[in-house]
Amino acid sequence: MLTQRIQAVQSSPTLRFTALAKQLQAQGKKVINLAAGEPDFDTPEPIKAAAIRAIQEGFTKYTPTTGIPELKAAIVSALARDRGLTYRPEQIAVTCGAKQALFNLLQVLVQAGDEVLIPSPYWVSYPEMVRLAAATPVEIRMDPKNGFRLDPKAVERGCNSKTRCLILNSPSNPTGAVLDENRLKAIAQIAKAHSLWIISDEIYAQLAYGTKAPSIAAVAPDVASRTLVVDGVSKAYAMTGWRIGYLAGPTEVVEAAGRLQDHSTSNPTSISQRAALAALTGDPASIRQMVQEFGQRRDLLVRRLAAVPKISFVEPEGAFYCFVDISATGLRSAAFSERLLQEALVASIPGEGFGWDSHVRLSFAIGRQALEEGLTRFETFIRSL
Ligand SMILES: Cc1ncc(COP(=O)(O)O)c(C=O)c1O
To answer: Which one of 26, 61, 220, 304 has the largest count of C-beta atoms within 10 Å of its C-beta?
Structure first.
């Protein structure tokens, strides 16, 4: 008999559709993948070279659980340079991806009886991670009419005596929405008034188009002591497989998250830490190029979707996703994604896993030519319904 804890956790809908797309590809079908949750770019060469050097030098043993000092120092500098955040090295823990940072934080910040506010649509793993911490996820529905931006008044309405924590994700997966300074300041004041922890998932912070995605801890310094910033190298440096993320915040919380890591995974891979060090201290030109390319793909996607009947969408300002309302087709999200895949050979992710069965997520982490072809197929499919 499995534990109640794991029985309450759902399998990832993202993975189910990715597997289905792979199955069709294996049968020789030319599937266009608009379901990707990772950059299609290869990890830049200097980063790979640093990892190869680490292996050749025998840097292949355990490291301190929460990361090597050089990497922590580089993270401190990068957070100051890119996000205007001030931390000391002991306020940083390096983790096996941003995912582990989020998981560890929820384990140390909330427990049975506590409620965690999750703006919805949300990244699929937040509610499950909250449940694994024995706490209760509470959705705050966001409105596409407000560009899926979190309304501070809705945060206020969601608070009660059990509320302990608020999860923010700007730019957002799956909507691409970015929270601006004024909104973040208003949200910060509510979090402060209700003594909430803020977990700010900023994994897409570098991927914003024509705008900047500020950090709540930078725009509202009075909540920095109750904010845990989560970031990593996965998305901005095309390093999803290397599994390096990090968290930054008050020392007491960071140390507690480190104790949990001591008894679970121990250190993130030594070789990947050297690679992440090269990423954060290297020439930023390669990220700039990737961001520029994502921006052009975003423009292409927005232009093409605007011509498609029966759908509506909010133009993404960041990340590499667009969350498309397909309710006028009369199909629920899983049925829509399944038919789109079987009939048009286009992979998408149904919105149900993000809390919205009326939507599907399309990704533009794919080359422009394939994106064009995928969107042509998408339009033909919608017109056939
Ligand atoms: C919003 C969000 N947070 C965290 C992660 C996890 O990132 P990592 O691969 O560094 O664990 C993802 C990955 O898809 C994500 O979309």
So the answer is: 220
C-alpha to C-alpha distance for 164 and 177, rounded to whole angstroms? 24
| pTM of the predicted model as reported, rounded to 2 decimal places | 0.97
pLDDT digits (tens, 9 = 90+) for 242-294: 999 999 999 999 999 999 999 999 999 999 999 999 999 999 888 899 999 99
Residue 72 alpha carbon to ligand 1 centre in Å: 20
As given in the structure block, the two tokens for residue 170 are 């700007």
Which residues sit with their C-beta closer than 6 Å to ligand 1? Answer: 37, 97-99, 123, 169, 173, 201, 203, 232, 234, 240, 245
pLDDT tens figures, 70-89 = 999 999 999 999 999 999 99
Phi, psi of 163 (to 5 degrees): -70, 125
E strands, 97-223, are: 115-120, 136-141, 163-169, 197-201
